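Quick note —
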Amino acid sequence: MLSGCIAPRGVLVEIGAESLPRCEVDTLQVEEIAQHGAHGCNLEGTDILLPHNLQARVSKVGSAASTSRIQVHPEDGNRYEQFPEYYVLNWGSIGISVTQVEEGVATDSWTSSPDAFAKQLESLRMNEIQVEFENPWK
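Predicted structure written out below.
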């Protein structure tokens, strides 16, 4: 698994978000993010369990972690599978968002609140990533 940190370009988080108390959650399944919601605490350091047996750790408020994995087949060493990339963004008190990206297109989304979803869409548009998923908060 490869991982790294990137800053979401051009999207602002609320003032004071970096001083929020830490959430008492160590690990979340990506599908449970909406049930966890936005509690006014910081999910930094929480591990998010993603599809394809991938995992990403929530970065500091205002930044993003990305993860992707390439699996090489041991039989011949030449064939490989590339799994989608996942971007985990920490928005502070409104929670986090996770985006699945395949070949430059956002194909799935999980967010902890409607506000985190709105920030996620803003970030994707500013970074010129095409969106092909529905709003789960409608």
